């Protein structure tokens, strides 16, 4: 059987299974309906058709999940687990994701729309790596002894310890559902926390499978709960006094609502929010390499990526040549149903997102930008939420298509001549998530890397992400950093202990 027909066969089997009953919430190790009995439809963005019904969790369900997570936090089988055993559980979970990789990849494709080859290579492979990486941390994450100098001259021992922050509400978006869940669940569990995961309403299915696999791996009931549902379920988690921390990825608007909603018990909050990342191209850049990576940086995942390089600052001397090359890459993308072979560009996640992207193209046109390529629905694709890869030239620094996050496959191109003005323009943004710099001039590369206000800077590359290096934003792109030691710190409290030895 060819890979494509195998993918279709897995999709068929999954859908048949999913249709038999509504998917429940995962609370205290069991799949349960919402207290209200309500459900909602998971929709396939490539067809607009229902995949299955999913429990619509609300405040009462969140409360039950928080109680389960609090009990699990205090349960000696989790609280007192040795670092080696905790590590082993996370490794086992990584192995189970790997065992079910093909199925999970197809499930994500059905729910989110992105090509199955990409869900397999990026989301599922990435999630396996994330669990393996954080499985290594429990045995390495500890405190220090510190050389304090008490005035009395007393002999004092001072040391620090790390404790899990407690019950964590993890609220994730629909653009990389499995990866975003893994980025939060893995360090939270490695740090000894218990969690309630709230996936986006558009993409609840892989989150539920992940929690089932965690149970199969031997992670105790109540440690990893999932509440599927709408924004109100997320808001209930944020407001709940039994939750010690919220980790959120999504829009800046909801991020701000979370900051307001969490003041009741001043729970810890970390935020990975939107971006409007600049791609800065100097006259000496390798244009072929830059064009390929800039095209991937805005069209990968249909532009629904927080780090999408959506503002292009091309030096005037190479602007037209570069744009022509990027447009050429856009034209070569194969648009279609993500289950089909050779497809590398799927639909947007929902009709709502399609309307949003389309309205920005209209706004850009009205503001005076010019469509180089794309701008709407691909010809002949009437079903599903497909939108063409789009490039808009002659964009101006005050245009909304340059200032606001579109979250779709739309590149806004500007040209520049003066380096100081370029830096000012690149930094003239509410966001500061990431930036790309394209040049072979070593000094310019490092000067610009230092001058750009962004949490991640890529030089002659773009969108590289690794569990070992921190990821997060300056300015309104967020609070805190995921990945690496920084992620372990997000999910722990540090305690300083003073012992008088005199
Ligand atoms: P969103 O509203 O920020 O959703 C992210 C998550 O937050 C979802 O699980 C959502 O649940 C939940 N949520 C919504 N309202 C909440 C509230 N008041 N309190 C707590 N949780 C809440 O993002 P979206 O509506 O899916 O997308 C809108 C725009 O956000 C996009 O067009 C894009 O610009 C941006 N976005 C950015 C990222 C990123 O990675 N930076 C990711 C996704 C979206 P529901 O799904 O049930 O609403
Ligand atoms: Mg869906």
What does this structure look like?
The chain is an alpha/beta fold. It has helices spanning 3-19, 59-74, 76-79, 83-99, 101-112, 116-135, 177-190, 205-217, 231-239, 252-261, 287-299, 319-331, 351-367, 400-403, 419-427, 442-451, 484-490, and strands at 25-27, 30-32, 39-44, 49-55, 156-164, 167-171, 194-198, 224-226, 245-249, 268-272, 277-281, 309-315, 370-373, 390-393, 410-416, 431-432, 434-438, 456-459, 474-475, 478-479, 492-500. It has 2 domains: 3-144 and 165-273 and 478-490, Aldehyde Dehydrogenase, Chain A, domain 1 (3-Layer(aba) Sandwich); 278-466, 3-Layer(aba) Sandwich (Aldehyde Dehydrogenase, Chain A, domain 2). The strands form 6 sheets. Strands 13-14-15-12-11-17-18 form a 7-stranded mixed sheet, sandwiched between helices. Strands 8-7-6-9-10-20 form a 6-stranded mixed sheet, with helices on both faces. The termini are far apart. Residues 42-43, 111, 202-203 line the site of magnesium ion (MG).
